[in-house]
């Protein structure tokens, strides 16, 4: 499953390539609480079809009512982007289902040009990070490939919104837990690769939509060139498969590197890395283990929920309380 931005952009390109009028809506500012973050996008076709989201649904309904009939919308208003603000008053916030005190501003771009849209999708599909600059007076779009993610910015003349390639998850091990975690990762927009050189595990894999590899995990880590939108989770309990791959992953920009295991096994892994590979506590501080947040999970699907929750928290820059850490919580039991 592709990330949501790519799904929205592909739908928009399909509509425009078919000669249909369509607009792109982007959340550019929020005040107080808001249902969707700055940078969120949705596309609206002239027939009222919608892909993506800028709110919990009420604002989408309002946009459909006002702009769903783009065939009848005055053409002179379709050249320059247009700002809309929702939730200015308490009554309006209630009407549009916004949280108390929530206000958001949306930029509408009408009949987005096909050529830069095609180029943007091509760059993203190739794994590049791209900033899309929109001229607020003319609607003209320019693209720039960048090395590091940048926050959305807007001034009187230009909107700059960064789009990234898919988030990637490498799961080492093709067991039952991996199947549940892979399924959740796919639904969260990750591109998932399963690595397991053991045929007896790999041969029974059931989840579709993933890349299945028989390589040694450490070789695959090097081959994938993990970046800041990548994460690695080792689930085999086998040091011969997990350790070297984890060590290589720790030397990349992967935002999350972790391994399943008990507190005792996790500590033993750290000691192996320090004693046999010359690492220090500081150089392996990024390693998560035991992985997951403490929710009292016992079964494979519950453990997968725990692991996925921790990965999303790290991805979204959320600092979890110490009480949510598996090792800490179990010390209290």
Automatic annotation (TrEMBL):
Positions of the XdhC Rossmann domain: 169-311
Pfam families given in the database record: XdhC_C, XdhC_CoxI
InterPro entries for this protein: MoCofactor_Util/Proc, XdhC_CoxI, XdhC_Rossmann_dom
Residues of the XdhC- CoxI domain: 15-65
Official protein name in the record: XdhC family protein
Protein species of origin: Polynucleobacter paneuropaeus
